[in-house]
Write a structure and sequence with these properties.
Elements: E1 2-3, H1 12-25, E2 31-34, H2 46-53, E3 60-61, H3 74-83, E4 87-89, H4 98-105, E5 110-113, H5 118-122, E6 132-135, E7 137-143, E8 146-151, H6 153-164, H7 167-184, H8 187-200
Parallel strand pairs: 1-2, 2-3, 4-5, 5-6
Antiparallel strand pairs: 7-8
Helix pairs in contact: 1-6, 4-7
């Protein structure tokens, strides 16, 4: 499962390339791309990208007619996460990574590029991967005036297969992931943090921008 818009920072071409490697090696995988294939922010034509890799249409799942600016009911979103085995993302950097946190809340472990917020989500205080895996970065280039990491596809695929082939590991990481979200990123926790922040603001000096 991947959830997100197909902008340049998501490196969708690498995600689909990794899935192609998986389908060449095994016949027990399908990829749900929860995105608008006609999204104006897409760096590539998603249909042409899938065709160029020769990925069978029946292995790609999506909500036909979904539009990036409308969304879907939260009950449907919850169902989507709950039927997934693994959340995957070849992103080139996340400010936070809400879909990954949502997946963790439903006890779904993931594999993402090991950069920006991925270690915070998936590693413990000792740097061990306990709630998911971070795949190595193979190279970085300057793009849109920022450094854009590219995941090592082979390492990414290897870590995805590790989770696919070990149900007990998926369950263990999933439970730890949910516990982390409840403790660090649940609505009550975030609400308390905002309240503490607002209480520190001097209303006589604050300026609205």
């Amino acid at each position: 499962l991947f959830v997100g818009r197909p902008g340049w920072r998501k490196n969708i071409e690498l995600l689909i390339g990794a899935f192609k490697i998986l389908t060449d090696k095994r016949n027990d995988v399908a990829l749900f791309l929860h995105m608008d294939f006609y999204d104006p922010c897409a760096e590539f034509n998603i249909f042409k990208l899938l065709y160029s890799y020769g990925i069978p249409r029946e292995l790609i799942c999506r909500f036909v007619g979904f539009k990036w600016h409308t969304g879907i009911p939260k009950q449907m979103m919850s169902l989507l996460y709950n039927v997934a085995d693994i959340y995957i993302s070849t992103h080139g950097g996340e400010g936070f990574g809400l879909p990954a946190a949502e997946a963790m809340a439903t006890e779904v472990p993931g594999v993402m590029t090991n950069c920006t917020t991925t270690p915070e989500f998936y590693q413990d205080e000792d740097g061990e991967w306990v709630r998911g895996f971070g795949a190595n970065v193979s190279k970085q280039i300057k793009d849109h005036n920022v450094m854009r990491p590219f995941v090592d596809i082979n390492d990414f695929v290897e870590k995805v297969e590790t989770l696919l082939d070990d149900e007990s590991l998926r369950k263990e990481m999933g439970k730890k992931g949910r516990a982390w979200v409840v403790k660090n990123a649940s609505i009550p926790v975030i609400t308390r943090k905002w309240k503490r922040l607002f209480k520190k603001i001097d209303v006589n000096k604050a300026r609205i921008i």
